[in-house]
Amino acid sequence: MSQAFEELSVPPDVAENGGVEVLRAIVVDGAVSVALRRSFDDPATWGRLLMDLARQAARAYALETEMSEEEAFERIRAGIEADSLDSGDLN
Question: Per its UniProt record, what Gene3D superfamilies does this chain match (predicted)?
Answer without folding.
Answer: putative pyruvate dehydrogenase
